[in-house]
Fold these 4 entries.
Entry 1:
Amino acid sequence: MLFFVVFLLFSILILKLGMVQIVYGDDYKRELQRTDAITTSNPVPRGKMFDRNGKVIVDNTPLNAITYTKSQNVNSTDMLKTAGHLSKIINPDLSKIRDRDIKDYWITKYPKKAIALITKSELKKLDYKQIYNLELQRIPAKVITELSKNQNEMKTIAVFKQFNSGYALTPQIVKNQNVTPEEYAVVSENLDNLPGVDTTTDWERSYLFGDTLKTVLGDVSSSEQGLPKELLDQYLARGYSRNDRVGKSYIEMEYEDVLQGQKAKVKNVTDKSGNVISTETVSDGQRGKDLVLTIDMDLQQQVEKIIEDELWKTKQKPNTGLLDRAFVVLMDPHTGEILTMAGKQITKNEQTGKPEMHDFALGNITTAYNVGSAVKGATVLTGYETGAIHPGSTQLDEPLLIKGTPMKKSYKTFGVINDLTALQVSSNVYMWKTVIAMAGGHYVRNQPLDMNLTKGFNTLRQSFSQFGLGARTGIDLPNETTGLQGPDMTQPGHLLDLAIGQYDTYTTMQLAQYVSTIANGGYRVQPHIVKDIRDPELDNNQLGPIVEEIQPKILNRIDAQDDWIKRVQTGFRMVMQPGGTAYSYFQGVDYSPAGKTGTAQAFDHGQPVMNLSLVSFAPADNPEVAIAVLVPSAYQGATGPSPNDEIGRLALDAYFNLKKQRQQQNQNAATSGQTSGNTANQTTQQAGH
C-alpha cells in the first residue's frame, strides 16, 4: 500500500511537471521574459531672450549637477544607504532641512524604534498612513535636537530629502549649485557604488543686464520648487512633471509655452521586478524657442540712468519726502512696440537703513495715479465729438464761482482763449466749461451747476477709454491694472476734476497708448513687448529663423475727424513752443517735439502731494516715437520741481542721439566696406596689368 501510494504521488508529480513544461511552458517562459517600456521626459534648457538689436538679455548658464533617478522597485532603506554614501563625498545644502525631513529620516533608519511608539491596539485600528502620521507626532523632541547637532547625519538627511522628492525613473536634481570639480569627479568615479546617482550638466537662468528690466522679465521656479501649486493640475495635464522649472511671473510666465521647449524622451525598459535593463533615447528634445523683445537695451539703460539721477537729484530739494519712484515708457506709436519700459523705486535697506534704488519697471502697468492735465487732449477731442466745442471755439478763462463750492480757476487767468491756446497754456477753465456743456449744463456766476452728471461721466469715460485711459492696453504681460474710477458720480466738481485728470487714475502704459493714438492719427495700437519668436540657433549667441512675427494690432479708431486730431496735434506742438508749459525744457531741440504736461493734486499716506506727468511724441509732423513720463508724489506744496519734464527731455534726447550714433556707425561701416572693396579692385587691376 505504501509503495502504491508513493508510486501514485510520483505519477501525479510527473504528470503535473509535464503539464507545466509541455502545455504551459511557453507561457511561463514568456512571463519570465516579459519587460515593460516606460517613457520618461527629461527637461531641456529654456529659450533665450534678445533685445531688438540681437543682444542677449536672458541666457542659460550651464551647471555641473548631481542627479538621482529612483527605480521602480527601490525601497527607502536602499535609498538611505545610497544617500549616506553620497553625503560623504559632496557638501549638500543643509539650510533647507525641516523638522519633518529629520523625522522622515529617523523613521526610515530606525523602523523598530518608530513602530514601538504605537500601541498594539492602535496598530489594529489604524491604516499605514495613519500609523506613519502618529509616528511623526510621537518622535521625541530630543531626537530632533540630537540629529540636528550631528553634521554627518544632517548631510545624509539633506541628500535623502532630495532623493525622496523625485519620481520613479525621473532624474531629480540633488545638487546643482556650487558643485566643485572635485565633487563632480569623485561622484563620477564612484557611480558603480551609488545606484541611481549620475553626473550631468544642468542650467540656471542668467540675466545679463542685472537689475535692468528684471521685474518685467520675470522669474523661473527652481527644480526644488517645481510646478506652482495653484497651477499644478493645469501643468500636469499639459505633460509637465511636478519638478519641472516653469516661468513664475511676467514674460517668463506669459510665454511659458514658447520658452519651455520640447523635452527629451527616454525609454526605460524594465523587467517584471521593475529593474531597468536598458535605456534608449527616443528623441533628444530641443531647447525652448527664443524671444526677441521690442526693447532697445541701450536706450533702456540710458533712460534708467536718467530716472535714477533725477530721482536722487530731486530728493535733495525741499518738500520731496514722499517722492520715491518714477516711470517712463517709450513706444513706436504706429506699431505698439515698447522701446523702453523703465521704472525705478527708492526703498530703505532694512539692515543698513540707507536708501537704495531698485528696478520697478513693472509699475508701468501695475500702478495707477492721478495724472493731471496730460489727458486734456482727450478732453478736447471729446468736446469736438459731442459738439460741446468745435475747432477754434473760444472760452473766457476766468475764476469759476459756483454756489456752495470754493472758487475754481486755472493756475493763471488767461482771458479769452481758443482750444489751441487752452492746450498750450493748460487752461483748466476751458476744459471745465467744455465738460459742463458736454453734460448739458451752463455756467452762471454764483449759481449751482445744473448738469446731467451721469451723462457727463459716462460720455467722458467712454471717450477716454477709446484712447486707452481707464481700459486695459492689451500689452502681452499679465496682471495689468486698468486704474481706479472715482466712485462718486453725484458731485459736479468731480466731473470737472475728471476732465483735467484729477479724479480717475491711469498707468504710465495707458498714457503711452493715449498719446500714441493722438500721434498716429487716431488709432489705438496694442502695445507689445515681444517682437518675434525664433527657433533656437546652433550658435547660441545668434538669432535663428523667425517662427512668428508679432504684427501690430489696432484695437479701435477713436470717434474723431482727421482735422480734429490734427488740431490737437497742433495744440500739443504749441506746448513745446514759446508760451507753452514745456517750452523752457524743450527749447532748442532739433527733433520737433509735441506733447502735454500734467500736474495733479493727490494724496500719499494722507499727505497732499503733486503727481507730475508728461506725454509727448516726435517729430511732430511725422511721429516715430511716443513717450509717457509719470512721477507720483513728486513734491508736497503748491510749487516744486519738475522732474517729469526733465526726464522727458533727457529721454527723448537719448533716443535721437542713439539714432544718430547708429546711423553714423552704419555709414562708417558702409564707407569702410566700400573702401575695402575699391582697394581690392585696384589690387586686382594692378595684378592684371
Entry 2:
Amino acid sequence: MTDPLIPAVLSFRDNGTPFSPLYDDIYHSAVGGLEQADHVFLRGNALPERWQGRRIFTVLETGFGMGINFLMTWAAWRADPSRSERLHFVSTEKHPFTLADLRRAYAATIGDPVIAALAQTLTDEWPMLVPGTHRLEFEDGRVVLTLVFGDAQHSLPTLRLRADAFYLDGFAPAKNPELWTPAIFKSLARVAGEGATFATYSSAGHIKRALTQCGFEYRKVDGFGWKRAMLVGHFAPRWRVRRHEPPSPIGPFAPDERHAVVIGAGLAGCSMIERLAARGWRVTSLERHASVAQDASGNPAGVFHPMISRDDSVASRVTRAGFLYALRRWAALERLGHAPSRGAPGLLQIAENDDEARSMSEAIAALGYPPEFVTPVSAAHAQKLAGMPLARGGWLFPHGGWIDPASLCAAQCAAAGDLLERRFGVDVGRVVRSGSQWTVFDTTGEELVRAPVVIVASAHDAARIAGLQHTPTRSIRGQLTLLPAGTAPSLGLSVIGEGYAIPLPNGVTLTGATYELDDADTSLRPGGHLENIERVAQMLPAFAGAAANADPAALAGRVAFRCVTSDRMPMIGNVADEALATRDADRLRGAWPLDLPRTEGLYSAFAYGSRGLVWAALGAELIASQIEGEPWPLERDLAEDIDPARFLLRALRQGSIAG
C-alpha cells in the first residue's frame, strides 16, 4: 500500500530562515536561499553554459523543499539567449508543502521580483498533495517540472530518464541520513548521462566514498556562506555500473525527420496528436471514419474521475496520475482558446452497500488524500449535492465530472494547428519498416504515407495493424440511454456507482452503460435502455418512476464498443519486436521489460476500455517522452504495467514461447 503523504511543517528561525521542525534543520543557508542555489547548484554544475545549444537538458534533484533551486534554474534558463530548447527539472519530495505554506514561505523569503513572479506562477500550478508523479509545464511546455511526491528511497529507482546535472540537496546528512546513502547514489548512477555533473553543499567523508563507489569523481571547492567546502564532480565510471543505459535524448531523429503518423482519431489518437505537435512534430492523422471521435470516443459525454482502492492498486495509481495530468492538459487547451465542452466540476460515487461506504471512507483516511482530491460523504450530504434522495453515501471527487469527448478531440487537433495533416476515410491495413522509415498501407495494398514514427491508436484494429500476436483483447458492447428533459429528475451533478447518470445541457440525462462481452450487435435494444435506467434507480430512487413510465423502444441512445485487455490495463508504449523475441526466447526467459527487443519507431496507444478520458493524455505524454528520450511522466514500474509488451514478457517467463 502506498504510504500517505505527510506535508511539511513550515516554521521560521528568529533570523527569518525557513526551518523544518521534523528534521530540525533549515531549508537553505541563513546567508540567502537564492544566492545559495546560484553558487552551489547552478555554478557547481557549470550552468548555464552546459545547457547551451542543447535540445533537451535534464536536471535531477534529490529534495525539492521550497523549490528555490528550481526557480533559480528556471530564471537562469529564461535569461540565457543560448538556452536549451527544453529544460526538464525532475525532483523528489517526501514532505511537500501545502499550497498555503508554500505561498507563506515565498512571501517571507523572496525579495527578488523576477524570482517572486516565477514563484507565483509555480504556486498557481502547485499540485494536489497525493503520492506519485506530477508533471507541470511552463513557458509553453519548454520548461517541464516533474515532481515525484514520495520517499526518494522508493521513488528514485522508479525514474526513467537521462540526467545531465544532479542537485544533491535535502537536509544535512546528519539530520536526514536516508537521502545520502549508497543506495541513493546508485539510483543516480543508473540515470546519469555521459558527462553528467553533480553539486552538493556537503563534503562529508561518507558521501565522498559513496559517490566514488557509484562511478562519480569529485573535487572539493569553496562552499557558500559559512561552509568552507562543497563537492562538485561528474559521472566517470571506471567499470560498468548499470545493466541498462538511460534513454537517449531525442532518439535518432533529426529536426527535419520529426514526422509521425497517428492511426486512429479517437481520444487516444487525438491526445497523441496534441502531445507530439506541442514538441514541434509534424503529424499525419489517418482515420477510417469521416471525422474524429466516431467510435467509443463519440459518446455524447463521458465521466472522468480517479479510482480509489483500499490497497492503492496499480490501476488506482495509473488512473490517479492520468486524471491529474488530464486536468492540466484540458486547462491548457482552454487557455489556448480551444476549450472542450464539459460540465461543472464535481462527481459523486455512490457505494454499493454500507460496508463499502465504511471501508472506502477508512481507506481515504488511511491514504491521507486531501479533500480537494476525494472526500467521503454521508447519505444526507450526498443528497444535498445531488438534489435528490440517494440509496446511501459514498465519496465526492470535487474535480471529477463529465466532458464531451468529441469536443476534446477537436480541441486537441485545433491546438496542433498547421503541424497536423488530417486524412479521413482511410482504412489502414498494415505498416512495414524499411530502413529508417515506416510505410503505411491501406487494406487494398496502396501506400498511404511514410514516416520514421507510427503510433497505432485504433482500438480493436491496433493489434492487427501493428502485427502483434500477444495482445489478449476483447470487445465490450456498451449501450447508452438518453432520457429527454422532463422524463427524469434533475440532477445537481454526475453520479456514478452501479451505473451512471450525467445531467447534460437542456435537461437531458445520459445513463449507462451496458457491459456485454463479445457482442457485435450495433442496434439499440429496449432491454438495454431499461437495464440502464433500473441500475441508476438503485442509486437514485427517484429514477424508479422513469423506469416505470419510460417506453424503452422510443428512447434514444448509442452503442459503442470498448476495447479491453485481459488485465483491464491499456497498451501504451514502444511495441516489442515479437519475432526477434521469439527467436531469442531461451535467453529472454528471465527478462525484464528493458531487456526486450523493441520495434524502432512503432508505438501503440489502445485498449483504454472505459477510461480513455483519464488515460489518454498521460499515455500520449508517455509515448512522446519515449520518442524524444525525455524523462517519463510516470514511474517505471507503472509504465511496465501498461507496456504493450507485458503479455509477451509473461509468455517468455512461462516458457510458452519456443525459440
Entry 3:
Amino acid sequence: MQKGHEAIVWFNEVTKNDIPLVGGKGANLGEMTGAGIPVPPGYIVTANAYFDFINSSNLRPSISKALESLDINDSKQLAVVANSVKEMIMATPLPTELASQIKAAYEKMGQGLVAVRSSATAEDLPEASFAGQQSTYLNIEGGDEVVEAVQKCWASLFEARAIYYRVQQNFDHLQVGIAVPVQKMVQSQASGVCFTIEPITSDPTKIVIEAIYGLGEGLVSGEITPDLYIIDKEGPAVLSRTISHQERRLVRKNGNSASGPEDESGNNYWQPVPSTKQEQQKITEDDIITLAKLAMLIEKHYNGPQDIEWAKEENTIYIVQSRPVTALKDASELEPEIEAPIMLQGAAASPGLATGEVKVLQDPSEIDLVLQGDILVAEMTTPDFVPAMKRAAAIVTNRGGRTSHAAIVSRELGIPCVVGTGEATRLLKNEQIITVDGTHGKVYNGKVTRNVKTSNIASIVREAIRTKTRVYVNLAQPELADKVAARNVDGVGLLRAEFIFSQIGKHPRYMIEMGQQEEYIQQVYEGVLSFAKAFHPRPVVYRTNDFKTNEYRDLLGGDKYEGQEENPMLGYRGVSRYIKDIEVFKMEIEAIKRVRKDYPNVYVMLPFVRTVDELKKVKQILEDEGLKRGPDFKLWMMVEVPSNIFLIDKFIDAGIDGISIGSNDLTQLILGVDRDSEMLRETFDERNEAVLVALEKAVTTAARRGITASICGQAPSVYPELTEKLVSWGITSVSVSPDMIGTTREIIAKAEAKLKIK
C-alpha cells in the first residue's frame, strides 16, 4: 500500500513489504489475505499509532533514561526496569481520537470475540524470530476491552525478555515499533503449527505438523506435548504419526462454566479432555493433507521455508500466521546415535551434542542459577528463560514439542535441545553431569561421545555441498572444537585467543612475577591443541591475543600492569603490544610451537597491525623464535585498520601469506562510528559505499598478488548480498559463526553458479 500516517489499516490493504508500518506478523497476515489463504479477517493498529503515542505523551525520554544504564545480565535489575517502563505506558491514557478509531474499526468488523496480537517491526524476520517476545490476548470482546488489550501489547514491547533479546540482536529499543493486529477469534477445536521443512535435519522434502486440542497457545508455550505428523511433499502423503496423550486443553471461558486455572488474558481456561479422547489423534487424515497442501502453497508464495500457525474451527482450517524459518541445520550433517544406556528420551528439538552440569529450574525467577555451560532443565521454558538459555550448553524439558518455545529458541541459539521427556525435572538432579543428544532426542548419564571418529563424520559431510570458495568457522571455546569439526566446514578461519586467556584468568605479567610462565604456556597450549587436533589436517588460523587494556585489567593482577585508557579500542592493543612487551608475546609463541610439533595445521594471524614497520618487527620476533614462513607455516594479517587498505601492497611486500578482513573494526574506523553506540547503530553498516570500496580493494589486491583473502567479521553472516560481492571479487574463504556454516555454504554455491565459478 501507499504508506502514509495511518493509525488503522485492514489486512487486505497491506503486504509483506509493509513491515515498518504493521510489523512482521501484520505484514504476513496481509500478504496471505491477498494471496487467498484462509486467514480470519481483521485490521491492524499500526506502528505509526504506537510511535505517535510514545512521542505525544513525552514517554520517549523517560523510557530512554530508564534503559540507558541497564545491565541485561542482571536479571533482577532487568525485571525492575522492565516493569517500570510497562507501568509508564499503561498509566498513560491513549489519545481520544485513536481510541475512537480502534473502537470504530472493531464495530466495522462486526464486533464479537477477537484475538489481539503483538506485531513488532523487528519480528518474524528472516534473520531473527523474536519468538514469543510480546504478548497476545485471546477472546477479547468489547470496544474498551480491545483498546486496553492494544495498550497492553504496546507495553509488552518492554517485557524483560523482549528488552534482553533486542540487546542480543543489536536492535535499538526506541527504533523498534509495534503494531497490533485485531483478528476475528477462531474457537479452535484443534490447533497447531506446521513447518514446510523438517526443522531438525532441514529436509526440504518433508512437512512437519504438530497438533493439540484447544487453543494454540497451549502448544507454543510448551504446556502441551503435541501429536507429530511427518508428511512427504510428494503426494502429499503421511509418512508417520506420533500420538501424544493430552489431559487438558485451553478453551474460551463461557459464562460460569469455567473451572480450572486461567491463561494470562483471563478470558480462557484449562478444561479437562474427556478420557475417551486423550489418546486419540487430534485431527483427521483429511485435515493433515489439507494442511500440507496449504503449507506448500504458502511456501511457494513466499519462496522459502515457512513456520505456520493454524487452527481448526468446526470443519474449516484457518491459517493465523506464517513466518520464515530462521534457524536451519545443513541436512547433510549426519550425526550417528550414541551407543550407551539411555537415561531419558523425548523429542529431538535442536541438533547437537553437549555435556554439562544439570540446573533444574522450577520458575523463571531462578534463571541466575544457570551458569555458562550448564544444562538447563525445566518443566518447559518461556521467553523469560532466555537469558539463562543463552548461557546454557543444552536444554531439556518435560513438556513441549519441536515447535515449542524451548525448541525454537534453542535452534536459534545453536544449542542441543530435547523436549517432551515427561520426567526430566524429577529424574535429573542439580550438579549431576549429563550428555544431551538433541539430534536424536536422548539424554545420557555422565559424559559420553558418539561411537564414531570425528574424521569419518567430517569426510561424510564434506561430500555434500562443494564450493571453490572455502567456508571457515570462527571459534573461541575449546569444548566446541569436536562438535564443529564434524560440520561441513573447511577449517578454522579465526581462532580467537581471548577466550583461552580469559579462562587462565591471570595477567601474564603477574604470572611471570609469580614464576608461573610454564603454567601459562601449558594452558595456552592445551587450549589451542583441542582445535588443532579436532580439525587436523584442515587449517586452524590462530589470531594472537588481542586483549585491550580494560580486558587485561580485569584479570588477576591486571590493575598493577595496565593503565586506564580513554579509548581502549584505539589504544595499547594488537601488534603494538607485542613489540613493547616481547616477553609475554614469546610465551604465546612457545605455546603455538608446541602445538605445531604434532599438528602443523596451526597458522598464525596478527591482529590490529597499524603500520608496515610494525608488521616487519613482529615478523622478526616470530622468526627469531622459530616461526618462519614456509611450506608448512603460513602467516596471515588481519585487515581492520584503514592504513591496511591504503598500503595493502606494502603490507604484502613485507611478507604475508594471506589476509583476513575484520569487517567490524574496519567499518568502525572507516565510518568513524562506535559499533556499540545505540544512537549510531543505523550508520554502522558494512554495506556502506566507503566500506565496500575498501573491501573490494583488499580482496582484489590479494588476488592480484597471489595471496589468500578471507573475511571473519560479522558481515557475511548477516548480509548474503555482501557475500556474493566478495565471491565475485575473488575472495578465497569466508569465516562465519558455527550456526551460519550451512547457510553461508549455500549462499556461496549459488553465487559461484551465477558467476560460473568451478
Entry 4:
Amino acid sequence: MTDEILSPTYAPIPYTAAAALIAFTVVMVVRTRAARERVTPGMILWPLPFASLLALMGVLCVNELCLFSAKTLIVYSVAMEILGAATLARTFVAPWLERIGGGAHGIRLLRDLVLLAIAAIISAWSLEAAWNERAGQVPVAFFALSTLVVFSLMVALYFIGQRSGVLAVIPVVACAGFGVAQYFILQFKSAAILPSDLLALGTAAAVSGNYTYEINTAVAESLVGAGAAIALLSFIWPGRPRTVVRGAAGVVGNLCAGVAVFGILAGAFSTVKLEEAMGFEYDRWWPIATYQTYGFLPSFIAVAQDLPIPEPEGYDDETAADIQADLVAAYDATLGATPERIAAEQQFAQVQPTIIAVMNESFSDLSLYQGLFDAGYTGPAFYNSLGDTLQRGTLMTSVNGGGTANSEFEFLTGDSIAFIGNGKYPYQLYNLSDIECLPRQLEELGYRARAMHPQAPTNWNRALSYKQMGFEEFYSMEDFEGEPQYHAGVTDRATYDKILELLAEDDGPQFILDITMQNHSGYDAGTVPAEELTSYAPAGVTDGELLTQLNTYLTCINASDRDLAYFVDQLRQLDRPVVLVFFGDHQPNMTTSLNDALYPGEDELTHQWRLFQSTYFIWANYDVAGNDQVSAQSEIGASALAAQALHAIGAPLTDYQKALLASRSQIVSLSANGYRGADGVCYTLDAEGPYRSLVDDLRAVQYLNFARKVN
C-alpha cells in the first residue's frame, strides 16, 4: 500500500466498471424478456449496490481522496464488477431448485443457513478490516461472538423478510458502515464509536464538513468484503408456495420466527453481562484500546450494557444524605467560615454581578508538551499574561478531541462523568428537568439565564437540554447569520459582541453561557490565513500532516487569544460588575498523536493524564472582597469549576456544591480519567489508595443528586 493520493486520472476505471455492470444487467434483462421468461425485481436491484460502490469510488478518486495505489483501484473495480454480475446467476440457479421435488424446502433452508453463516463471517471481518490494524490478533472467541451476533440478526431479518436475502443485507451494510465510520473517527479523534454517539448523529453531521475523508486500502478491502456478502445473500430466495393457505401460514410462521430470534437477542443482551461472560473488562478510560483488542462488536455491546448508571455498592439514600451533610458541615466550618468568604458573601448580596461563562472550543495551552515548549511555543500570550484573575490553572476534563457537551454538562451541573460512565452523553440520554444546575440556581437568585452557540441548536440536543435546565433564551446559528467566520465557524469575537449586546439591553443580573465554535477540528491545511500560520516543529515529531494540524490549531488559538483580549478590555470598561469564567472544553484531537510522538514509552497513567488537561481562569472587572486577585494557581476538575467560581465571588452555594468544595481538601481534581490526591499523586478511579473511601462517598452523593432523578 502506498501513502500517496491516487491521481484523479484513474477515476475512469471504477466509472467504466460501473457502466459495464449496468450494461451487462440491461443485456441480461433484455435477453430474459426475449426468451419470454419472467424478469424479477431482484434481477435489476441486486447489481445496483455494486454499481453504486463503483461510482462512489470514482467520486472519491476525482476528489483525490483515495490513499492507495492504482493496482488497488483496479482490483477493487474488477472485484465489484464480478460480484455484481454474479448476482445475475441466481436467475439460472432458481429454476433448478424449483424443479426439485419434496426435498426442496429442506435444501433451501440448509442452503440459506449456510449462505447466511458465510455472509456473517465476511461481514464480521469487514467490520474489523476497515480500521483495526490488530484485527488479526482479535481472540477467536471474540470474533466468533461478533459473527454469531451478525448471523443472529441476519436470521431474524431473513425470516421477517419471508426467507429472502433482501433484509439480511441490512447487517452487512451496517457492519461495513460502522467499520468505515470507525476508520474515520480513529483518524480524526483517535476514539471509539460508543453507543451514545448514535444519539448524536445530528451533531456529527453538522460538523462533518470540517474533515477530509481519505480512504486507504483497508477500507477498499472492507467494502469488497461487504460486496461479497451481499452477492452471497442474493442467492437466498423463497420457494413458491403450492397453495394460498400454505403461503399465508408461511408468512405468519416466518414473522413469528423472526420476532422470536429478536426476542432471544434482546433477552441475552439484558441478562448476560458480556464482560463477565467473556472474562474481559473494557477500558473505560480509553475505550478504543478495548475495541482494537477484542473487536468492535463485543466492545460496543459491553459499553451499551453499561449505559444505565449503576447504583453504588451498598447504596441507600439515607447514607448518601448523611455523607453529604458531613461534607457540608466540613465546608461550613472551614472554607465557608473564613473572613474572605464572609466578606465576599456580603459584597455579592449587594452587587449581584453578571456571570459570564465562556467555554471556548478546543482551547488549551499546549506549552504543557515540553517538546513544543522547547521549540519556542509558550502558549496563548494574552491568556497567560492576564494577571488579575481570582483563580486560574489546569482544568481536568473527561474528554479529549471531542465530547464537548460533557465538559459543558460537568460545569453546569457539578456532576462528573466519572460517576456516570465514560462515553455517555447526559444531554442525549437523560431528562435534566429535575436536577440541580447553574442556570436554575442563578435564576432563583433573580438572574436571567441565557445561552449561545453559533451552530445548529439541535447539536448535542442542546435546544431541549437548555430548556430543561432553565435557560430562558438560546441564541444559535440563525442568530449569527452574516457574522465573520474563522477556520471552522463564527468567530469568538462575534459571540463576545453578542454578549456585550445582551448586557447593553438589560442592566439586571444575568448568567450568560457562551459555547464558541471557531476552533473546532479538523485542522487541515488551508483553513486559516496563510500569513497567520505558525511554524513550530517540535523535535521528535516527523509526521508532516501532524505538524500541519498542530500549527493550524495553534494559529486558531492565537486568533482566539486576540478575541479574548478584546473581550476582557470591553468588560473592563463596563460600569457594572461582571465575572468571567473562561475555560477550554478539551484538547484538540491531534494531541493523541503529538503525545505519542513526544513521550514514547511512558507509563500509561502519566501518558493519558496529559491528554485531559485543559485550562481555565475566573476573572472579575471589579475588586472582589476577600480576594487579592493575583492569579492564584489551582488544578480543578470541570465538575467543580462552577462551585469554585461561586465560592470565590461570595454567591450562595447549594449543599451539593459545598460538598464538592469540601472534598477538594483531599481530592484536588476529579474527572472520568481519575483524580489527583492532595499528595500530588494521580490515581485511576478504581485504584486503592488513601482517598478511595472519599471517591466512594462522592459517587454516592452524586448518585443521590443526579442518578436517582434521571435513572
